[in-house]
C-alpha cells in the first residue's frame, strides 16, 4: 500500500514537471538559434537577434547626430537628450526635479528614502546622546548634530 502511494506521488511530480515545462515553452515559444534564449513574442526575438548581428536599424534623425539603436525605445529615450524633455517628475513633497529617463528618477528617489532613514537615525542618536554626551566646552552636542543632518538633507533635495 505504501509503495503505491510513493509511486502515485512520483507520477504526480513527473506530470507536474511535464506540464510546467510545456507551460514555459508555451509562454516563450520563440527561440534564438544562436544562444538558445527563448522569448514570448517574435518581435522580442528579432530585437534580441540584433545583439548578435550588431545591427542598429533605428537611426537618430537629429542634425549632426549619428547615433543608432537596436530598438525604437532606446531611440525615443535618446531623443530626450536633444529636446531637453524631462517627462519624469519627482513627486516627493517640495522636490522640483525632473528627469528625462525613468531609471534616473528611480535612482534619485532613493536619495529621498536614504535621507528620511538617515534623519530619523541621526535624531534618535543625537537625542539619546544629549543627556550624557558633551563636547570640550561642556555643551550638549545634540543641537549641533540635528542642525548638521537637517542642512545635509536640505542640500541633497535641491
The strands making up the biggest β-sheet line up spatially as: 1-2
Mean pLDDT score, rounded? Answer: 72
List the secondary-structure elements in sequence, H or E: HEEHEEHEEHH
Task: Let me know the largest β-sheet.
Answer: 2 strands, antiparallel
The class by helix and strand makeup works out as mainly alpha
Global shape: flat
Distance between the termini: 73 Å
Rg result = 29 Å
Number of β-strand runs: 6
- Percent of residues in beta strands? 5-15%
Helix content: 55-70%
The parts where pLDDT drops under 50 for at least 5 residues are 118-158
Helices, by number, come to 5
Region (Disordered): 1-24, 107-158
Organism: Euroglyphus maynei (Mayne's house dust mite)
Keywords: Metal-binding, Nucleus, Repeat, Transcription, Transcription regulation, Zinc, Zinc-finger
Biased composition (Polar residues): 145-158
